[in-house]
Specification:
Chain lengths: 117, 117
């Protein structure tokens, strides 16, 4: 399940549309659904557009792992950070990610633990 | 969504099969699914049996709220405690609960934050 977390954050960190699209097709279920406090996206195209929009909002920022992943059955929970490379994250989020029988990301239930005051 | 948490914990605290069954039918989706580190249950009957088994394992213990619920869209996250009434909980859990369009509990994605050493 550490792999799931890595694939998930790699998708968020993809440097361009082509790589992001490839990672979505490779590691996410076609019926994937993503919900966080600010957005709801169903399907790979909508999820890709959501990620692209967030990246435009935070140019130069990267997503990073925070703490340990905690996984069982087909679900994993973990925190992540968003901030400048090699700096303290300005945003800390928390996601529960579920996978399908093929190990692809199916549902993302996202929450925010720290947002800039 | 505080209501969802209350309904959820009320189901866990139901004192007998009849009341638990009533709460499940009233507040849970027929297609509800429950997963925690120790068990996986699909459907109201299996979920009811899971709850009954846990309650037999911890006679006299009650489930209680811990901290605040954090909700958006159709999902809520919260911690809960399990222990003797009016005592420090011996188990602390964490759940993400999603609801269907009718406001009924649909998916429970459970994790454990503290278990007795």
């Amino acid at each position: 399940m550490n792999t799931v977390r890595e694939r998930y954050l790699a998708t968020w960190n993809a440097p361009d549309d082509a790589i992001r699209s490839q990672l979505l097709r490779e590691h996410w279920s076609e019926s994937a659904a993503y919900i966080d406090p600010l957005t709801e996206a169903a399907g790979l195209e909508a999820i890709g557009a959501t990620i692209a929009a967030v990246r435009e909002q935070f140019p130069g920022f990267v997503f990073s792992v925070v703490g340990e992943a905690d996984a069982h059955h087909r679900q994993v929970r973990f925190q992540w950070g968003l901030g400048a490379a090699d700096a303290e994250p300005v945003v800390i989020g928390f996601d529960v990610v579920t996978i399908d029988d093929a190990g692809r990301i199916e549902h993302v239930l996202g929450f925010l633990d720290r947002v800039p005051g």
